Fold this protein.
Amino acid sequence: MSVFTKLTVSEFKLTLRDPLYAFFTLLLPVMLLAILGNVDSMREAPPELGGLRVIDLYAGLALSLSIAIIGLQGMPGVLAGYRERGILRRLATTPVRPGLLLGAQLMMNLITVLVTTLLVYTTAMLGFGVPFPESPATFVLAVLLSSSGAFALGLLLSALAPSGKAANAIGTVLFFPMMFLAGLWGPRELMPEWVRQIGDFTPLAAGQDLMSDALLGRSPSMLSITVLLGYLVVCGAAAIKFFRWE
Amino acid sequence: MAVIEVENLAKRYGETVAVRDVSFSVEPGEIFGILGPNGAGKTTTVECISGLRTPGSGRITVLGRPAGDPELRARIGVQLQESELQDKITVREALELYSTFYPNPADWRDLAADLGLTAKLKTRFGKLSGGQKQRLSIALALLGNPEIAILDELTTGLDPQARRDTWDLISGIRDRGVTLLLVTHFMEEAERLCDRVVVIDKGAVVALDTPSGLIGRAGDEQRIRFRPSQPFADELLTGLPEVREMRRQGQRIEIIGSGNLLHAVISVLARDGIVAAELILEQATLDDAFVHLTGGE
C-alpha cells in the first residue's frame, strides 16, 4: 500500500470514530429521503419540474446535503484543526509532505460522497420509484462536479480561517443559504426567477440542476458546468495559494 | 567532521528580528544544548536547522547538505513544541503509520517498549497524559532511525518524575549513536545531559562551552551562611583575602567570597572557639551562569 492509501485509510478510521460524522454524512440523507418519500404531496409532479416528481428532486437534494455537510462543515474544521494543532507541521518534518494528508482527506470525503450516492439512490429507486438517470454519464458528472466545487470552497475556507472553530462557523453560515438556494426547503424550479438566478451561481444549486438534467436525459446545462468548474479552479487555486501550513 | 554547522544565521519575521547572528557546530555523537530565555530565538534556530524555515541569511549545513534538503528529512528526527496528533488515533496506529513514511524505519514495537508505551498502544492520543504524549512524540522523532534527533523543549510541562525519566531516555538515545540537539530552558536539564551548550540571548550567541565551563565563567563566587554561637567583630573575617563581602542579617551572617573560602572562615572561627551553626555553602550553578550571561541591563 502506498503512503497515500495508508493515510486515506487512517483518515477514514479516525473519521468513522466520530459517530456524528457517519450519521450526518451517510444516514441523515437516507433518513431525509425515507421520511419525505412517505409524504403524499412529494409524489406530485408540478408542471414546473418538467416531468419529475418532487421526491425525484429530493434524492439529489439529500445527496447535496451530504456534500454540503462534508465540504462546508466537516472538512474545513478538520483541516484548519490539523494546522492549528501542529499535525501538518509534524508531517513537514518527515519525508512525507503535509499536502498528502490534505489529499487523503479529500479522497476520503469523495469516497464518502460516493457511498452516500449509492445509499441514497438505491433507497430512492427501490423504495420510492425514483427513475434511474436517463443519462448516467451526466449523473456521474453532476456528483463529481458538485463534490469538487463544494470541496474546493471548503478547502479555501480551511486555508483562510484562523482556527478550526472559525472554519466550522463560517462553513455553517455558508451552508444554510446554499442549501436554501439548492432547493432543500422548496424546489428551485418553484422559486422566483431572481432567486433562482442567484442560485445558478452557487455550487450546490448548480449541481442540483445537473442532477435534474441527468434524470431527465437533457443535455447538461453549460452554465452549471461552467459555474462548478469555476469554483473548482478559482477556489482550488486560491486555497493552494493561501493555505498556511502552520 | 561536524554534523550540524550553523554560520551567521539570521531570521526576521516582518519587523521582528527572531535571530540576529547565531553560529555553532555540533559534533557527531554529542548531546548539544541550545539554552536561552523565552523569545531568545532558540525555536527559530532549530526550525531553520530542521528545514521548516528558510534562513534570512547565513548558512546551515546538516550532514554535509544544506538545511532543507529533502533528503535530510529521512535522516533527521524532529520533535517540535506544540505539535499534536489527531485525538482519535491510537498510539499503535500513529507508530505504524509514521513508520511507513521512512525508508529504513526502526521497529516501532521496540521503540514503544523503550519509551514505556507498550501498555498504551491501544490508547487514543487524546486520552494520553502530557508525559505519554511527549514520549510518543519522541518515539515518532526516532522512528526513522535518524542520525540526528532534534528535540525542542522536550520536558516542558512534565512533572519532575516524568522529566527525570525522559532524561534517562535521552542518555539511552545517545548510546545508540544518535547525535542530539536539545532546546531547553531548564538549566538542570542542560547540566545533566549536555556535552556542550550554546547560550542564545536576543537572537545572538552569548556563550558556547561545556556546562562546567559556563559555570566557571560565572566566577567561582561562593556564599556561606551560618549562625555564630557567639558574637564577633566583623574585622575577624573581613580581613581574610578570600572574603569579599560580609553581611549581617539579624543573627545570621552571610559571607561572599572565592577561593578556599569555607576553610578560611571556619579555621578563623574555630581559633576563637566560635561554632558556625546551620551552615550552608552555595556554589555557582548553571543557573547563576545563565543569569550572569543573559541577565544584566
